[in-house]
Amino acid sequence: MSPSFDIFCKVVDNYGDIGVCWRLARRLAAHPGSGAIRLWVDDLLSFARIAPQVQPDAATQTVAGVTIVCWNDAQASAPAQQPADIVIEAFACSPPARYIQNMSDQQLWINLEYLSAQDWVESCHGLPSLQPNGLRKFFFFPGFTPATGGLLREPDLLARRDAFQVNPQARLALLAELGVSPEWLELLADGAALIYVFCYPQAPLPALLQALGQHERDALVLMPKGMWPRTLADSHRHGNLIAIHQHDFVDQSRFDQLLWSSDLNIVRGEDSLVRAIWAGRAMMWQPYIQEEDAHLDKLDAWLARSPYPDTVQQAMRAWNRNDGGALAAALQHLLPPASLQKWTNLTLAWSAELAQADDLAQSLLSFYANNHQTR
Length: 375
Ligand code: TRH
What we know:
alpha/beta, 6-stranded mixed beta sheet, 16 helices, globular, binds 2'-deoxy-thymidine-beta-L-rhamnose
């Protein structure tokens, strides 16, 4: 029988926790090998920003085949529910105590961890940890190698991306929908660059704008509203015209399409990292900022697995170290169209290579099949 899933998600900060859980829940709901999918979320307001169909005040609702349960204190003290076959706690958020009381060794209990390209992930992936109630909880690590749980990817994703990218009208329609002006739509249709920026406020954005201004193409920088705490002029003229357009949050499918639409994607956190790779365009990554610069180690580990040459790596390190001078120096070599195309080709080839592996949802189902048989 196809296993059912309970996925528990606490929104700590930002959109990454719910972003990953929502993609996973939808992917599993569409998978022929899984049963009912229930997603427990403690912050439906944040959730609704990336999934506008979600009603922030509903105790339970069904969206895209997923039963969404508002996981608040009242819910936690309500009569415990019958646990699903596979219980996933995202990023070590523990399910409610009363729920755990109803669990037995019939359930597969998974702690879904953050994505990392660091070597140690391979040795920890799939390891059990014995819980005080005698049950085993398994560490499950997404990752970039076959010894990990893989990356989230819908089976038709790259085909949909390819179809979108050969259709310039689809791109312009999307940008028009987000309020990009007719003048800019025309410039973009004539070859101006589109740069997507989803970053933390520590990034040297002014240096990026300046570097774009010294480049031979006009450029439109598209970024979500509210991501940048300081004032930004809407438009600059350094040599070329550089404008910034800030868009309202869109749902995850449109977010993907924005990444497919851009000539350079600068993203942050783990979910956008994966989506920018699948977008197959030139890209830079800013990991979530951690104490003692642990995020810089994460970046280095990921860069070591990436196909990117030194100049691209220098640009990313400079972006993450808030080093505007080094960023500008690297971008001088990377922004000319031929270099940008090479960078794009590298991402495209990497996306094709990574897509050969099982995706995270498939890995979870295979892990269940293997573990279920041995119990
Ligand atoms: O929002 P983030 O910075 O999330 C972070 C990290 O995941 C970090 O590791 C975690 O610890 C911290 O949150 C709590 O970046 P991330 O991971 O890319 O998640 C953003 C999600 O928001 C992603 O699923 C894409 C989605 N999104 C939209 O759907 N529409 C939008 O308009 C935008 C800007 C984002």
